[in-house]
Amino acid sequence: MNSARRRILLAGGTAMLATSLSACGTILYPERKGQRSGRIDPSIAILDGIGLLLFLVPGVIAFAVDFSNGTIYLPGTQASAETNDEIQTARFKGELTEEKLDTAWNETYGDAKPFEVSQLERYPIRNQSDISSLIGHLSASNYARS
Q1: What is the per-residue pLDDT across 44-62, written as a single tens digit (0 to 9) for each?
Q2: What is the DSSP letter of 117?
Q3: Residue 143: φ, ψ to 5°
Q4: Distance between CA atoms of 25 and 84, rounded to whole angstroms?
Q5: How many CB atoms lie within 10 A of CB 96?
């Protein structure tokens, strides 16, 4: 085999390998790291599948890395955010004060709250599905841990 043909094959193989390895969720969506479950993102699964078809080992590695990092899952579709089993709400009459929040936290969790009121942010909530989508969004951005 002449050297020109060898270089072309080597360059083509390297390009295909680099493409299959770089076309995974960990590189495309690093902000998704840390998700534990949810709906699988079809575009990432297809890209990982192409890597699996072209090169068996890199494709398997791409799937393994995406599943272990959680980047193959669509943001906001975690099981805990979809099923409202773990969501607890508290309603307050009047203005939310430090004392009211301390009482509600202590009644719910049995100990002192691990934050200050000044660290809280408010979001408009109209119904239970707003809570689920907000928790999913914050969890996907690693802002809140569910």
Answers
A1: 888 888 878 877 877 888 8
A2: G
A3: -80, -40
A4: 27
A5: 14
Distance, in Å, from the CA atom of 24 to the CA atom of 142, rounded to the nearest integer, reads 20
Residue type, 85: D
> Global pTM?
0.42
pLDDT lower than 50: segments of the chain: 80-82, 146
Q: Let me know: does 83 contact 71? Beta carbons within 8 Å.
A: no
What's the rounded Cα separation, in Å, for the pair 31 and 44? 14
CA distance 44 to 40: 8
Task: Quote the pLDDT of residue 81.
Answer: 41
Instruction: Indicate the residue type of 124.
Output: P
Tokens of 43: 């575009």
Per-residue DSSP letter, 77: -
pLDDT of residue 41: 87
Phi-psi category of 38—alpha, beta or left, where left has phi over 0 and alpha has psi -120 to 50?
Answer: left
